[in-house]
Design goal:
Layout lengths: L4 E6 L6 H15 L3 E6 L13 E4 L4 E2 L7 E2 L8 H18 L3 E5 L9 H12 L6 E7 L10 H12 L2 E5 L21 E3 L17 E4 L7 H13 L6 E4 L6 H9 L5 E4 L5 H7 L2 E4 L3 H10 L3 E3 L9 H11 L4 E2 L7 H13 L12 H17 L8
Parallel strand pairs: 1-2, 1-6, 2-3, 6-7, 7-8, 8-9, 10-11, 10-13, 11-12, 13-14, 14-15
Antiparallel strand pairs: 4-5
Helix pairs in contact: 1-11, 2-3, 5-10, 7-8
């Protein structure tokens, strides 16, 4: 029997959270002897999707602004119809060559509506096949709320028409789909909770810091890093700070921040050992993105969360509020954040005792592989598997 083949589509637009989560899942699939092809549609990020995963890079697009209201190419120009057509044809050709047993589409149709120009033709091509692969959407645990009228109904229609599985990467004890998607009951038979896609337990840190500040993978964290540098100057100088800007911060902005860093603060674009640094830190200061929170929960680190809310985004605020209610985090609004306000919050957070992390399921990547194996085994009972 040949290896089971997975065709995994992921489009990151602003940060790298979607790509990072998908890469963790792809790594788990590869470890379970799946042959994985990942199609990426955003700007290249070193180290992703990772070893053993075949990659197809579409002509990149990014968010036109913080509110995701448009698409831009790698040079920042608006995406044209010809550019969309080139991406669509490359995606369809990659799918044809892959001949997958499983197709995973990250976020769509619950999100990434901007990519309908290529995803709807892909789904139509799948439906036209004689031997249709298993089709799943890969979805984070908390969705964007306040969507436009009719969007939820359209999402349900697309799920019923094209998708066999909704892989919900969360623990139902923390967040359930119906809490942020009101029509979840109509597709309940397709929903499978995988647990949170967290990293494995971290290694012992090679160095330790008191406060670990991370702005995520997006280009919107300059204000947070700047306020943290100011807070480092206000608080006692014996506190050691590690500040990670993320890979997308423009070089002039990074240089400006580095020049302003006090002696007790170290500034980095990226740390490969981020998870182990969290395990050794007294406090994490970050936005409340899915992957960062998973890292924090796995490390058992105290946290101060500053959720991203630009463009009407609600997902991070919802996640941060739930963690605050569980006593796992303090929350600070990003609106008008200042060095003095951040210093006060950091001081208060350091004074609190370390939280007791509840027994949430953090093995979502490996559980996803198990769920797909089980569904494919059932399918193979009614149709022969492709021979080697």
């Amino acid at each position: 029997m040949s290896k089971r083949r997975v065709f995994f589509y992921v489009q990151h637009l602003l940060g790298i959270g979607h790509l990072a989560r998908a890469s963790r899942i792809a790594k788990a699939l590869f470890a379970r002897d799946f042959d994985v092809t990942m199609v990426t549609g955003g700007s290249p990020v070193p180290g992703f999707p990772g070893e053993g995963v075949r990659t197809v890079a579409l002509p990149p697009v990014t968010a036109g602004d913080k509110g995701f209201s448009g698409l831009a190419d790698a040079e920042g120009n608006p995406v044209t119809a010809a550019y969309q057509e080139r991406r669509k044809q490359q995606l369809l050709e990659a799918f044809r060559l892959s001949q997958p047993d499983v197709v995973i589409i990250e976020a769509f149709p619950f999100g990434r509506r901007q990519m309908r120009f290529e995803l709807l033709p892909l789904l139509d091509a799948i439906e036209a096949m004689d031997r249709r692969p298993l089709v799943a959407t890969s979805l984070r645990d908390i969705l964007q709320e306040r969507i436009k009228p009719g969007r939820a109904e359209e999402t349900v229609e697309l799920v019923k028409k094209h998708f066999d599985l909704v892989l919900l990467h969360g623990d139902p004890a923390f967040a359930r789909l119906e809490e942020t998607f009101p029509l979840a009951g109509e597709i309940a038979d397709r929903v499978a909770y995988t647990g949170l896609v967290a990293p494995p337990p971290p290694a012992e840190p090679a160095e330790t810091f008191d406060i670990l500040v991370s702005a995520g993978g997006g280009a919107v964290g300059k204000e947070l890093i700047g306020a943290a540098l100011g807070a480092a100057r206000i608080l006692p100088p014996e506190l050691r700070w590690c500040l990670v800007t993320g890979p997308n911060l423009p070089q002039p902005d990074f240089d400006e921040l580095a020049a302003a860093a006090p002696e007790n603060a170290s500034l980095f674009r990226f740390r490969q050992d981020f998870a182990s640094l969290l395990a050794g830190a007294r406090l994490s200061v970050s936005q409340a993105g899915y992957n960062t929170v998973c890292d924090i929960l796995r490390a058992g680190c105290s946290s101060l969360l500053i959720p991203f809310t630009s463009g009407g985004e609600t997902e991070q605020s919802t996640r941060a509020t739930r963690l605050e209610r569980l006593g796992l985090a303090a929350v600070l609004s990003e609106q008008g954040i200042s060095a003095r306000e951040l210093a006060q919050q950091v001081e208060a957070s350091l004074a609190r005792s370390k939280p007791d992390i509840p027994p949430l399921d953090l093995d979502g990547a490996d559980n996803t592989a198990t769920i797909l194996e089980e569904h494919l085994t059932r399918l193979e009972g009614v149709r022969p598997h492709r021979s080697a």
